[in-house]
Write a structure and sequence with these properties.
186 residues; alpha/beta; Rossmann fold; 2 domains; six-stranded parallel β-sheet; 8 helices; 18% strand
């Protein structure tokens, strides 16, 4: 399972998580730290933003902070696999809880993704919402999902297959009950 990467299956979409999966960081944390450095007084508004929900908070921070997407630490093993998938004609979707601004910038920078699904000012595309969105778009069992965390269990519930990044043994077992584990990136 964690040995060789599975052959590319072009018949179903591959949805890819961003934070902790495609990249070795979390863009919300990076953007909040940047906001703290560049506009420390803007953080005084953060309780009001959070009171309107996590999606609004992410939106407000992204409206005030530009990140250098080219300097983000991309996981090279995942990137190599995605390039193989792209070369084989597989449809790749970036499906992330990160704000749509950053998700679009990552997709534009990499040139790998056919579609981007991300958090907006109104919707935090995480967990159950991400799973339901992908299932509505591609059908239940109509996509494989590459992710890294417990919140992704709600996505794998709808997925045909799972690719995991740095999973704990417990997460690996839990995902295996939900769908077929195709590969675990170390």
């Amino acid at each position: 399972m964690s040995g060789s990467i599975p052959d590319v299956c072009a018949e179903v979409v591959l949805a890819v998580d961003l934070d902790g999966s495609l990249i070795d960081t979390d863009l919300l944390k990076e953007s909040v730290l940047s906001l703290l450095r560049s506009h420390p007084l803007a953080l005084a508004w953060s309780p009001a933003w959070l009171a309107r929900g996590r999606a609004r908070f992410k939106h407000e921070v992204a409206a005030r902070v530009d990140l250098d997407i080219t300097a983000v630490p991309y996981r090279q093993d995942v990137m190599a696999y995605l390039r193989r998938c792209r070369d084989a004609g597989r449809i790749l979707v970036l499906a992330t809880a990160s704000n749509e601004k950053y998700a679009a910038q990552v997709a534009d920078h990499l040139g790998l993704f056919d579609e981007v699904l991300a958090s907006t000012a109104r919707y935090n595309l995480k967990g159950r919402m991400k799973g339901e969105t992908l299932a509505a778009r591609f059908g239940a069992r109509g996509f494989d999902y590459l992710g890294d965390s417990r919140s992704d269990l709600a996505v794998w519930r709808y997925a045909r297959g799972a690719l995991l990044v740095n999973p704990s043994p417990a997460l690996l077992r839990r995902v295996g009950v939900t769908c077929e584990v195709l590969h675990a990136f170390g």
